[in-house]
Structures
1.
Amino acid sequence: MAVLVVLLSFLVAGVLGDEFSILRSPGSVVFRDGNWPIPGERIPDVAALSMGFSVKEDLSWPGLAVGNLFHRPRATVMVTVKGVDKLALPPGSVISYPLENAVPFSLDSVANSIHSLFSEETPVVLQLAPSEERVYMVGKANSVFEDLSVTLRQLRNRLFQENSVLSSLPLNSLSRNNEVDLLFLSELQVLHDISSLLSRHKHLAKDHSPDLYSLELAGLDEIGKRYGEDSEQFRDASKILVDALQKFADDMYNLYSGNAVVELVTVRSFDTSLARKTRTILEAKQAERKDLCLRQHGRLDKPKNFLTTTEHLEIVDKNSRKPQAKKLTQTSAPGW
C-alpha cells in the first residue's frame, strides 16, 4: 500500500508539475494562497473574471476571490514560458498554483470582451509569440508598438543595436553566435521593448479602458532541446529569464500605477493533439520565406497588424481606429 501511495504521488506530481503564477496584482484582485489546481483550459476565464468580465461557464476555483467589483485592473499581462514546468522565482514574492491538463489556450475571448465593451475607447491589445512570428495588435497598440520587432530579421537586428539587452545581460555560457541562444535573447529584448515603448505613452496606462498583453516565450524550450536541461546553458538561461520576468512584471505593474495583474504560465509542453501545427522561427529560417502582404488604402500594410495563425484576421483601419473583420482562408502560419 505504501508503495502504491508513493507511486501515485509521483504520478500526480508529474501531471501537475506545470504552474500558473501571479507575479503582481492590485489589492482589488484577490488571489488566495493555496495548492488548488487550475485546469489549463480555464486560464482565460481566470483572466476574464479578474478583469470583471463574465464567462460562459462558472469557475468553481477557490484561488480567485470576488475582490472589488467596482475597481477592476487597468491591464492584464499574461506571459507563457514553454519548456519548463516551473521557474525558481523568489520565494514569498509570487503565488503559484498547480496547472493541470496543460492544453494550448488563448486570450481571444478576453480580447473580444474588451473590443465589445470598449470599442470606442480603442484599448491596447497585444498578443505576441516571437518564436512563431505570431503577432496581433489592435487599437492603440498599433501606434504604441509600431516599431516592435516581430520577424526573425527584425529580432536579430534589434539585438545588435547599441541599446539592446546584450549590453547589460550576463550571458555567461550563452553565445551571441548561436541561433538558438539568439532566439532566447531576442525574447528578452521583446519584454524590454514592450515596457520601454509603453513608458513613452504613459497616458494610455491611465485611461478608463482595460488593456491586454499576452506573450508566449519558447526560447528556453529551444535552449533545453539544444543543450539539455542539465546543461550550464539551460541553468544560465533560466536564471536570466527569471530576472527578466521579475523586471518586466515590476515595469508593467508600475506603469499602470499598481493597477495591473501580471501572470505567468510555465509549461514543459502543451498537449497539442488538438492544436494546429505551426512552424517555429528556426524552422521558418530553413524554409523558403514568402511575403504575405495586405493591401489597404492603396498601400502595403506591415504584417504586424494581424495574427498569422488564425483564419480570421482582424485588420485595423488606422483612420477610424475601429477593427474591420476580414476572413482569409489559411491553413498554416505563413513565413514572412
2.
Amino acid sequence: MPASSSTSLPLDSAPVSNQPPDNTLPPPNRPTPNRLKLTYDIVMIIAISIDLLLISIDAILMSSFSSNAAGWLSISDALNWYQNTLHEPLRTAGGFFTLFLIFELLLRWAIAIKQNVYYRWFFFPFVHWYEVLGCFPQLRALRLFRAVIIGRRLYQLGYQVLPQPWINRIRFYIDLLLEELSDRVILTTIQNFRQQLTDPKTHKSFIESTITRNRNEIEAAVLSILRTELAPKLQELTASSGGGSILASEMGNAIEEGLANTPELRRYLRMIPIAGSLIESQLQHVGHNIGENVVYALNKRLLDPERLDSLMVAIANGIASIDTDNTALDTLISSIIDDSLTEFEAQVKVQQWKHQEMLHL
C-alpha cells in the first residue's frame, strides 16, 4: 500500500504542473475525424476542384473570345489543336465523372437511409440539392458548393484547406457584400416608408395606431415625470418658507387690503368711540393672519402625498387619452419620426467594413 501511494503521487501532481497558464487559450474542442471519411473527403475535394478547373478552362478555350484572342496572338494552330484533339476526350472524361458523382450520390443516399441519418428517407436529395442539380451538365458549377462544404468540414476538423489570409479575405468580402446588400434594402425600405407618410390618410392612421398601442406606456412615462419633477415642487408649497410663504403673505395682504378698502366696515367701526380705530387695525391684522392660515391649510390638504399622487394619476391618464385629431400633436410626431428616420438612415450609410482590421491584411 505505501508503495502504491508513493507511485500515485507523481501521477496526481503531473497534471497540475502541466496546466497551461491563465493567459493561454485552451485547445479547441474538435471532433475525432474518421480516417477513411477524411481521406475520402480530401480525394473528393481534389477531384471536384480539378473537374471544375478543367470545365472552366474548356469553356474559355471553346469560346469565341479565345478564338479572337488566339488570332490576335497568332496561336490559332495551338487553339485548333486543342479544340480538335483534347476537347472531346475532356468532355468524355467529364461525362464519366458525372456518372461517378451520380453513383456516389445514390450510394450515400442508401447509406443515409440505412443509418437513419434523416427523419425521412426522401430528405436526402432535398438536403443535398446542390449535388443533385450539379449532376446536370448545364448546372455543373453547383459542384463548387460541395467543394466548399467539404472544405468547411475539414476546417472544422482542424485541417487548413486554404491559407488563413485567404480565409480572412473571403470572410471580409462576404461581410462587405452582405453589409452593402442589407444597407440597400434598409435604405429602400426607409424611402418607401417616407413616401407612404406623405399620404395624409396613411400618416393619420399611423399616428392613431401608434398612440393607441402605446397609451399605457405614455401614461406611465407622464406619471413618472410628474412624480419626479412636479410633485416635489408642489409639496414645497406646504412649507412655511419659499413659495408657500410668498403665496400666504400675498393672500393675507389681499384680505387686509380688502378690509381696508371696505368703506361700510370703516364707517361702522368709526361709530364706536375711542376703540373704533383700534378695532379696525386689529381686524386688518387678523384678516392678514386668516389669509395666511387659509393658504397653509389649503396647501396641507390639497398637496397631501396621497391626494397629490391621485391627481398626478388623473393628469397622466388624461394626457394618455388625448384625441389624436390634433394639429400640434401631428406636427410633433411627424418631426420626431422624420428626425429618427434621418438619424437611422445616416447610421446605415456608414460603411462599417471600412473600419475593420481586415483591411490591414
